[in-house]
Design a protein that fits this description.
Elements (H helix, E strand, L loop, with lengths): L1 H17 L5 H18 L4 H24 L8 H20 L2 H35 L5 H22 L15
């Protein structure tokens, strides 16, 4: 996994260097870099792992929103983007600077707030992609299909992690 995320990050940063006006490659490189950092640092103390998990989750939701927005910028409202960014940065800084000894006790509350933030992101992205499909934007159908598949596999991983469903492995770790 670490090798895949490393190669993907380098490749997409390289693409961005050649095509600086296209931010899609930059956002995807950032998504892969955050996933790489998470996979490298999740071998440490449990509390540190929880913090890193929360931080990467927040950053990836923000980068993913801007990644999808780079395909269909006219379908996203700038005001909602700024509000979402402000909330994401607030939670990022709150998790980052919350005292380590107390974070384990507050993890449940942080996690619920971050999940609500992520739920908003998912609904916001899906409604923008559906709007793009209705307006017959180029490539809206394959992107919406890919996002739906990614959402299903992400939910599969979440249900696996929370032990809601008994499956041998979380589906789709490297699917996208």
């Amino acid at each position: 996994m670490i090798g895949c995320f490393t190669v993907n990050s380098i490749y997409h940063f390289g693409l961005f260097l050649f095509y600086r006006k296209n931010y899609t490659a930059l956002y995807f490189a950032l998504i892969n870099t955050v996933a790489l950092v998470f996979n490298l640092l999740n071998l440490f103390h449990f509390e540190f792992e929880q913090k890193i998990g929360s931080l990467t989750f927040i950053l990836n939701s923000l980068f993913f929103l801007y990644f999808v927005k780079s395909f269909f910028p006219e379908e996203f409202l700038e005001t909602l983007n700024r509000i979402y960014t402000a909330f994401a940065l607030f939670f990022f800084l709150a998790v980052l600077f919350y005292p380590n000894g107390l974070y384990e006790n507050a993890y449940m509350y942080f996690n619920k707030a971050i999940m609500l933030l992520m739920l908003f992101s998912i609904v916001y992205i899906l409604q923008a992609l559906i709007r793009a499909l209705i307006r017959r934007r180029e490539d809206s159908l394959p992107i919406l299909t890919g996002m739906t598949v990614l959402l299903v596999f992400s939910l599969s991983r979440y249900f696996f992690k929370e032990s809601f469903v008994r499956i041998p492995n979380p589906l789709g770790a490297l699917f996208f």
